[in-house]
Design a protein that fits this description.
Shape: flat
Helix content: 40-55%
Oligomer: single chain
Number of strands: 11
Mean pLDDT: 76
Low-confidence stretches: 51-56
Strand order of the largest sheet: 1-3-4
Number of helices: 5
Largest sheet: 3 strands, antiparallel
Length: 230
Protein backbone atom coordinates (compact mmCIF):
# COMPACT_ATOMS: atom_id res chain seq x y z
CA UNK A 1 0.00 0.00 0.00
CA UNK A 2 1.29 3.49 -0.85
CA UNK A 3 2.12 5.83 2.02
CA UNK A 4 -0.84 7.83 3.28
CA UNK A 5 -0.21 11.59 3.15
CA UNK A 6 -2.37 13.61 5.51
CA UNK A 7 -2.34 15.41 8.86
CA UNK A 8 -0.67 13.61 11.75
CA UNK A 9 -3.14 15.27 14.13
CA UNK A 10 -5.82 12.59 14.42
CA UNK A 11 -7.52 10.29 16.96
CA UNK A 12 -8.13 6.61 16.28
CA UNK A 13 -11.64 5.77 17.54
CA UNK A 14 -11.67 2.22 16.13
CA UNK A 15 -12.96 -0.74 18.12
CA UNK A 16 -13.40 -4.44 17.39
CA UNK A 17 -16.79 -3.52 15.90
CA UNK A 18 -15.36 -1.24 13.23
CA UNK A 19 -13.13 1.68 12.30
CA UNK A 20 -13.56 5.41 12.80
CA UNK A 21 -11.13 8.33 12.95
CA UNK A 22 -11.24 11.97 14.02
CA UNK A 23 -8.94 14.34 12.12
CA UNK A 24 -8.05 17.70 13.65
CA UNK A 25 -7.05 21.06 12.22
CA UNK A 26 -3.33 21.68 12.84
CA UNK A 27 -4.03 25.29 13.86
CA UNK A 28 -7.24 25.48 15.91
CA UNK A 29 -7.81 21.81 16.79
CA UNK A 30 -11.35 21.64 15.41
CA UNK A 31 -12.05 18.19 14.05
CA UNK A 32 -13.91 16.16 11.46
CA UNK A 33 -15.02 12.63 12.34
CA UNK A 34 -15.11 10.05 9.58
CA UNK A 35 -18.09 7.77 9.11
CA UNK A 36 -18.07 4.48 11.00
CA UNK A 37 -16.88 1.51 8.91
CA UNK A 38 -18.24 -1.77 10.26
CA UNK A 39 -15.69 -4.56 10.70
CA UNK A 40 -17.51 -7.74 9.59
CA UNK A 41 -14.97 -10.18 11.02
CA UNK A 42 -15.24 -8.48 14.39
CA UNK A 43 -19.02 -8.92 14.40
CA UNK A 44 -18.75 -12.59 13.38
CA UNK A 45 -16.23 -13.30 16.12
CA UNK A 46 -18.54 -11.68 18.69
CA UNK A 47 -21.39 -13.94 17.60
CA UNK A 48 -19.22 -17.07 17.75
CA UNK A 49 -17.76 -16.18 21.13
CA UNK A 50 -21.23 -15.51 22.51
CA UNK A 51 -22.44 -18.87 21.19
CA UNK A 52 -19.37 -20.52 22.65
CA UNK A 53 -20.15 -19.20 26.11
CA UNK A 54 -23.69 -20.60 25.83
CA UNK A 55 -23.04 -23.93 24.02
CA UNK A 56 -19.38 -24.54 24.83
CA UNK A 57 -17.20 -27.10 23.02
CA UNK A 58 -16.59 -26.59 19.32
CA UNK A 59 -18.63 -23.37 19.30
CA UNK A 60 -16.24 -21.86 21.85
CA UNK A 61 -13.25 -22.99 19.81
CA UNK A 62 -14.83 -21.50 16.69
CA UNK A 63 -15.17 -18.20 18.51
CA UNK A 64 -11.52 -18.24 19.48
CA UNK A 65 -10.57 -19.15 15.91
CA UNK A 66 -12.48 -16.17 14.55
CA UNK A 67 -10.72 -13.97 17.12
CA UNK A 68 -7.35 -15.21 15.83
CA UNK A 69 -8.48 -14.46 12.25
CA UNK A 70 -9.43 -10.98 13.35
CA UNK A 71 -6.00 -10.44 14.88
CA UNK A 72 -4.31 -11.74 11.73
CA UNK A 73 -6.10 -9.49 9.23
CA UNK A 74 -6.91 -6.58 11.54
CA UNK A 75 -3.78 -4.67 10.52
CA UNK A 76 -4.58 -4.57 6.81
CA UNK A 77 -8.28 -3.97 7.43
CA UNK A 78 -7.36 -1.10 9.71
CA UNK A 79 -4.99 0.42 7.15
CA UNK A 80 -7.59 0.16 4.39
CA UNK A 81 -10.20 1.82 6.59
CA UNK A 82 -7.76 4.57 7.53
CA UNK A 83 -6.89 5.26 3.90
CA UNK A 84 -10.58 5.54 3.06
CA UNK A 85 -11.17 7.85 6.03
CA UNK A 86 -8.27 10.06 4.91
CA UNK A 87 -9.78 10.51 1.46
CA UNK A 88 -13.11 11.31 3.10
CA UNK A 89 -11.60 13.86 5.50
CA UNK A 90 -9.34 15.56 2.97
CA UNK A 91 -12.40 17.24 1.48
CA UNK A 92 -12.77 19.18 4.73
CA UNK A 93 -9.18 20.48 5.06
CA UNK A 94 -6.70 22.58 3.08
CA UNK A 95 -2.95 22.12 3.17
CA UNK A 96 -0.84 25.25 3.35
CA UNK A 97 1.93 25.17 0.76
CA UNK A 98 4.12 27.43 2.93
CA UNK A 99 4.14 25.54 6.25
CA UNK A 100 2.59 22.21 5.21
CA UNK A 101 -0.14 22.27 7.88
CA UNK A 102 -3.62 20.90 7.22
CA UNK A 103 -6.18 23.44 8.40
CA UNK A 104 -9.96 23.83 8.41
CA UNK A 105 -11.37 26.12 5.70
CA UNK A 106 -13.96 27.85 7.89
CA UNK A 107 -11.67 29.28 10.58
CA UNK A 108 -8.00 28.91 9.74
CA UNK A 109 -7.73 29.23 5.95
CA UNK A 110 -7.08 32.54 4.16
CA UNK A 111 -8.82 31.91 0.85
CA UNK A 112 -7.61 35.19 -0.69
CA UNK A 113 -3.97 34.34 -0.06
CA UNK A 114 -4.44 30.56 -0.49
CA UNK A 115 -2.40 30.04 2.67
CA UNK A 116 -3.27 29.22 6.26
CA UNK A 117 -3.91 32.17 8.55
CA UNK A 118 -0.76 31.31 10.49
CA UNK A 119 1.27 32.21 7.41
CA UNK A 120 -1.08 34.85 5.96
CA UNK A 121 -3.18 36.39 8.78
CA UNK A 122 -6.64 37.66 7.95
CA UNK A 123 -6.39 41.46 7.69
CA UNK A 124 -9.81 42.28 9.14
CA UNK A 125 -9.38 39.89 12.07
CA UNK A 126 -5.89 41.19 12.86
CA UNK A 127 -7.04 44.82 12.60
CA UNK A 128 -9.97 44.22 14.97
CA UNK A 129 -7.72 42.45 17.47
CA UNK A 130 -5.03 45.15 17.26
CA UNK A 131 -7.68 47.88 17.56
CA UNK A 132 -8.97 46.43 20.82
CA UNK A 133 -5.46 45.72 22.13
CA UNK A 134 -4.34 49.28 21.38
CA UNK A 135 -7.23 50.75 23.37
CA UNK A 136 -6.52 48.39 26.22
CA UNK A 137 -2.83 49.32 26.27
CA UNK A 138 -3.65 53.04 26.09
CA UNK A 139 -6.15 52.88 28.95
CA UNK A 140 -3.63 50.96 31.06
CA UNK A 141 -1.01 53.63 30.38
CA UNK A 142 -3.43 56.44 31.21
CA UNK A 143 -4.35 54.78 34.50
CA UNK A 144 -0.66 54.56 35.38
CA UNK A 145 -0.22 58.25 34.58
CA UNK A 146 -3.17 59.26 36.75
CA UNK A 147 -1.91 57.05 39.54
CA UNK A 148 1.49 58.78 39.35
CA UNK A 149 -0.24 62.12 39.90
CA UNK A 150 -1.95 60.93 43.09
CA UNK A 151 -0.18 61.06 46.46
CA UNK A 152 -0.46 57.72 48.23
CA UNK A 153 2.57 57.84 50.51
CA UNK A 154 2.77 61.30 52.09
CA UNK A 155 1.78 59.92 55.50
CA UNK A 156 3.95 56.83 55.34
CA UNK A 157 6.89 56.38 57.70
CA UNK A 158 9.88 55.68 55.45
CA UNK A 159 12.56 55.64 58.14
CA UNK A 160 15.16 52.90 57.88
CA UNK A 161 14.01 50.94 60.92
CA UNK A 162 10.26 51.17 60.29
CA UNK A 163 8.37 48.12 58.98
CA UNK A 164 4.80 48.54 57.75
CA UNK A 165 2.59 45.70 58.95
CA UNK A 166 -0.67 44.54 57.46
CA UNK A 167 -3.67 44.50 59.85
CA UNK A 168 -3.80 41.25 61.81
CA UNK A 169 -6.90 39.25 62.66
CA UNK A 170 -7.54 38.81 66.39
CA UNK A 171 -6.01 35.58 67.66
CA UNK A 172 -9.04 33.33 68.18
CA UNK A 173 -8.85 29.56 67.92
CA UNK A 174 -11.04 28.01 65.18
CA UNK A 175 -12.95 26.00 67.78
CA UNK A 176 -13.74 29.09 69.83
CA UNK A 177 -14.68 31.02 66.70
CA UNK A 178 -17.08 28.26 65.63
CA UNK A 179 -18.55 27.99 69.12
CA UNK A 180 -19.25 31.73 69.20
CA UNK A 181 -20.81 31.85 65.74
CA UNK A 182 -24.26 33.55 65.67
CA UNK A 183 -25.89 30.36 64.37
CA UNK A 184 -24.80 28.40 67.44
CA UNK A 185 -27.30 28.10 70.28
CA UNK A 186 -25.58 26.98 73.48
CA UNK A 187 -24.92 27.73 77.11
CA UNK A 188 -22.16 29.78 78.70
CA UNK A 189 -19.26 27.96 80.32
CA UNK A 190 -19.39 28.30 84.12
CA UNK A 191 -15.61 28.88 84.16
CA UNK A 192 -14.85 31.31 81.31
CA UNK A 193 -18.28 32.21 79.91
CA UNK A 194 -17.68 30.88 76.36
CA UNK A 195 -20.94 30.00 74.59
CA UNK A 196 -20.90 26.41 73.36
CA UNK A 197 -23.08 23.34 72.86
CA UNK A 198 -20.25 20.79 73.02
CA UNK A 199 -19.35 18.36 75.78
CA UNK A 200 -16.25 20.34 76.75
CA UNK A 201 -15.67 24.10 76.57
CA UNK A 202 -13.61 24.81 73.42
CA UNK A 203 -11.81 27.68 75.19
CA UNK A 204 -10.82 26.33 78.62
CA UNK A 205 -11.74 22.65 78.39
CA UNK A 206 -14.24 22.74 81.25
CA UNK A 207 -16.71 19.82 81.25
CA UNK A 208 -20.36 20.68 80.62
CA UNK A 209 -22.65 18.58 82.85
CA UNK A 210 -25.14 16.39 81.03
CA UNK A 211 -28.17 18.34 82.23
CA UNK A 212 -26.70 21.58 80.85
CA UNK A 213 -26.02 19.93 77.49
CA UNK A 214 -29.58 18.64 77.35
CA UNK A 215 -30.83 22.16 78.03
CA UNK A 216 -28.69 23.46 75.17
CA UNK A 217 -30.09 20.79 72.84
CA UNK A 218 -33.65 21.73 73.79
CA UNK A 219 -32.81 25.38 73.11
CA UNK A 220 -31.49 24.48 69.65
CA UNK A 221 -34.65 22.55 68.79
CA UNK A 222 -36.82 25.40 69.99
CA UNK A 223 -34.80 27.83 67.88
CA UNK A 224 -35.32 25.67 64.79
CA UNK A 225 -39.09 25.64 65.34
CA UNK A 226 -39.08 29.40 65.93
CA UNK A 227 -37.23 30.13 62.69
CA UNK A 228 -39.43 27.74 60.71
CA UNK A 229 -36.61 25.37 59.75
CA UNK A 230 -38.50 22.35 61.12
Amino acid sequence: MALIRFTANFDDLSTDKGFQFRFRCDKCGNGYQSRFQTYTVGLISDVLRSAGHILGGSWYNAGNGAYEIQRAIGGKAHDDAFAEAVEEAKQHFHQCTRCGKWVCPDVCWNAAATLCEGCAPNYDEEFAASHAQAKSDASRGQLHQRAQQTDYASGADLSADHVHQAPARPAISPMTDAANAPSIVGLPCTTCGTISNSKFCPECGHFYPRNRRLAAAEARIEALFTTGLM
